[in-house]
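Colleagues,

Please find the record for the two-part complex below.
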Amino acid sequence: MRGESVMSLLMETTEFKVADQKGRVALGSKWAGKRFAVYEESDGKVMLSPVLVVPESEHPLTASRLRESFAFLEGLTDNWDGRGSLAPDPATIASAREALGLLQASALARGMGWVEPHIGANERGQITLEWWQENRSVTVFIRAENQVDYLKAWGTNIEAEMQDGEITTIADFIALSHWLNPGQRAGRAIPSESAGEGQAT
Amino acid sequence: MSDILMPSPADPVTDDEILYRALSADPRYLAPDGQGGFRISSMAFNDAGRRPSVDRAALCPDGAVEIQARFSPGSGVLSLVAREVRSLQTVHGGTGLVYGVDVEPVPLPDNPAHAEIFGHPPFDTDKVFDRIKQALARIATVVILPTKSETDLP
């Protein structure tokens, strides 16, 4: 999930609209209430891009906090666990930071609760984000700059109680969040203090 | 004198045997569950060769503390039952190949209790091994909590 591909999750369709004499553009009801950033370039081109507005006072989402969350991974060296595991490379760590920031922003923008994931790494130097809720768990794997997938589990039966797949859009992650917390709806955020560390949105 | 017969290091692992898994001195292998307990991260079963090492309790007269002492200061210890490990199996999504999970003795000169969890056929993809690790984390229990060692952690 490189920088440009992450941003493309927010811009999945392209349509042309015409502004009226007062500069107003009608986008259609599906965009009602959404917020947009307007970019005007030096050659006169104007881009309208949907943005996610994060209620930062409740859940600070800053570059420094993200760096802090992943800082311990940056200090790892190969065989960090005594089991021969590789240390994550800087590009994978950067992708994981980017992915986590985007996932958090998308969850908060939908009024969903957010609990920090349990951040780890596997033997291949891939980064894992784990959430648990009762018997359910979701593990997101940042395997490389452009490869993010998940494993969800609700028991020990590897065939009948686990499922994996790729995360290619924000909607994939939101669906996982709803699966992990079936009672949670947009606008009913679960306070992280009561959810406890290691539990998910 | 104990009447319990200690197996030979090369003897097959029986279904009833308890297996210990050592964790390095890093609390990040576990996450508080909010109810006074812990969730075990699947990274507790990381292994570069996809054959997670365990120690046979039957060959550890001093129990889990022996594992802790052998591995590293402050390390933690998990336990599993061989029967539950062997009950795990998975099918490769693409090929339909059925992977069984087993444990066999691999005694080392300095650790006769050493054994390894392995797949037959060997776990050859990340996704298959991810599922195995997830299942192992779910059937394991915490015997000794790892503690943070400032000298071991970045």
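Residues 149-154 of chain B have pLDDT under 50 and may be disordered.

Comments are welcome before we finalize the supplementary table.
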